[in-house]
Amino acid sequence: CFNSGSSWNNCDFETNLCRVLPEFNLQPGWIRRNGRSGMGPPYFDHNGNESAYFLTLSSEMQSSSAALRTSVFLPTDEEHLCQIRFHYWVSQMSRTLMVGLQKLSEDTVTNIWQVSGELRNQWNINTITINSTEKFEVIFLGMVKTQRQGESVAIDDITFSEGC
């Protein structure tokens, strides 16, 4: 059900073009980089490629969190649930990655998934299924309690199913 061939449905961050994350270059706090950037871990993307790109939280973050917001998705129905699959890296306990759902009629963001740092430095994969009766946005929120060198939150290969 995942169509990875389409740039509409897949954000691998190899280029800046990622239509589902339209403001991705404007989001303070998230940066697009690869493992050779000299900015600490991860030193490779989820496929083990040092020169492939992914997103990480910037070490120069001004605030304790940085949001990455998708474009607005239409309501889902029983046949077309919205599934979002992504790879993530969260190192150390002072780092958290959260995925939230914001319905357009509400000001609040509902937390639908989150993970805090695991000491194993490795890429993990997760799939979230979203069911919403109204238009919505999805927000990836990286959070930092304390700034320490060599710790990071990273995201790679966000894939959106046809129901999104």
From TrEMBL:
InterPro entries tied to this protein: ConA-like_dom_sf, MAM_dom, MAM_domain-containing
Domain of life, source organism: Eukaryota
MAM domain mapped to chain residues: 9-164
Cellular component, GO annotation: membrane
Protein name: MALR1 protein
Source species of the chain: Vidua chalybeata (Village indigobird)
